[in-house]
Write a structure and sequence with these properties.
The chain is α/β, with parallel strands linked by helices and 383 residues long. The protein has helices at residues 121-134, 148-159, 178-192, 209-223, 226-232, 252-267, 270-282, 292-295, 316-328, 346-349, 351-382, and strands spanning 5-9, 13-14, 20-21, 24-31, 41-45, 57-58, 64-65, 73-74, 79-80, 85-89, 142-146, 166-170, 302-308, 332-338. It folds into 2 domains: 5-175 and 284-382, Alpha/Beta hydrolase fold, catalytic domain (Rossmann fold, 3-Layer(aba) Sandwich), CATH 3.40.50; 181-277, Rna Polymerase Sigma Factor, Chain: A, CATH 1.10.1740.110.
């Protein structure tokens, strides 16, 4: 485990929205080693507020820290870093080392701010593909992602069908429903309306904290479920003296959301939040195809989808639409809905249940990939 690395790629990346970037920096981490057949590479794509630090390893300060998907990734875990070569990169437009709105525009010497070109999920995937080219990974055993990470994994399977042996999507969707877009817009409005936003040109150490905290509070509500909020907070007061009869934080749920907002401001960037949520809004796996099934006709991956019973942000029926479309085109697809009270956040909070599906799925795909790679290697040696 070598910690965070940053690679500069002179890619002249043309973006779906019409913009381009003459070069990009990508922050990424790797865990484990490539096998002799180079058939065990697993790309993990992070969600909206994530980064490259998916599992325990040295972080930017050199200190060993747990990753955001610690229960699922590591030695002996569902995505076993003793068996698989795991790669995770911060997405294009991010704020954890990869080129984004806080990066320096080489043309001006100043941070991009809102002059950064709009990026899409597909642009993020193209940047990841350029990274894999640079580090010598031509084919992936699996692309894995939850939430926005699952959108990237889906885009991989359609955009680079010959490079992806399998795909795992957890609590994800093939396009946002209007309600999800609406929540994203309210969060963006909170940021844009903060007096400290300064049209996106705020100093790095003086970002619009109030607006970003509100955006996070709104988003966090969508990640929970009614059941989990009732069990965790109920109508309990943060202090037991009784109601204040004033506009102050009184209920435990209010205190919790305020805490989440403060924590988020310490590690995330407001402009990045704008770009990430807009990229999610734009994502539509069907694209210009007449149907989702037609859009997926050329996929070559095996698929595993996991949903959670209380996830109302990306509900199970949206994933079933993907499953149905894949079945129509003859793809090999597995699906399970996991009963969980945790809402959308369940993909971070239900490791045992997910492991029961992810571990055997990966092992099955790896057995076939390793055998196929061994055969190709022998044929190459014979030649």
């Amino acid at each position: 485990m070598s910690g965070v690395k940053v690679i500069r790629l002179p890619v002249d990346l043309k973006l779906a929205g019409g913009g381009y970037l003459p070069q990009i920096d990508i922050a990424y981490e790797t865990f484990g080693e490539l096998d002799r057949n180079r058939s065990n590479a697993v790309l993990i794509c992070h969600a909206l507020s994530g980064d490259s630090h998916v599992a325990t390893g040295p972080w930017v300060d050199g200190v060993e820290r747990p990753g955001w998907w610690e229960p699922m990734v590591g030695p002996g875990k569902a995505i076993d870093t003793q068996k698989y070569f795991v790669i995770c990169s911060n997405v294009l437009g991010g704020c954890s080392g990869t080129t984004g709105p806080g990066s320096t525009d080489p043309a001006t010497g100043e941070p991009y701010g809102l002059r950064f070109p709009m990026v899409t999920i597909e642009d993020m995937v193209d940047a990841q593909a350029a990274l894999l080219d640079a580090i010598g990974v031509k084919r992936l055993l699996c692309v894995v992602g939850g939430s926005m990470g699952g959108m990237q994994a889906l885009a991989w399977s359609r955009r680079y069908p010959q490079r992806v042996a399998s795909m795992i999507g957890c609590a994800t969707t093939w396009r946002l429903a209007p309600q999800a877009i609406a929540f994203n817009e309210v969060g963006r409005t909170a940021i844009l309306g903060d007096s400290g936003f300064m049209d996106g040109d705020y100093p790095a150490d003086q970002q619009p904290e109030h607006g970003l905290a509100i955006a996070r509070m709104i988003g966090h509500i969508t990640y929970l479920s009614e059941e989990s909020m009732r069990d965790k907070f109920g109508r309990r007061l943060a202090k037991r003296e009784g109601h204040a009869y004033d506009f102050v934080t009184e209920f435990e749920v209010e205190s919790y959301l305020a805490h989440q907002g403060r924590k988020f401001v310490e590690r995330f960037d407001a402009n990045t939040y704008l770009y990430m949520t807009k990229a999610m809004d734009y994502f539509d796996l069907a694209g210009d195809a007449p149907s989702l099934a037609e859009a997926l006709r050329n996929v070559q991956s095996r698929f595993l989808f996991l949903t959670f019973s209380s996830d109302w942000l990306f509900p199970t029926h949206e994933t079933k639409e993907i499953v149905d479309a894949l079945c129509q085109v003859g793809a090999e697809v597995s699906f399970a809905e996991i009963k969980s009270p945790y809402g959308h956040d369940a993909f971070l909070l239900e490791p045992e249940e997910q492991t029961a599906f992810v571990r055997p799925f990966l092992e099955s795909v790896y057995e076939k990939e390793f055998a196929a790679a061994s055969s190709r290697l022998k044929e190459g040696d014979a030649v």
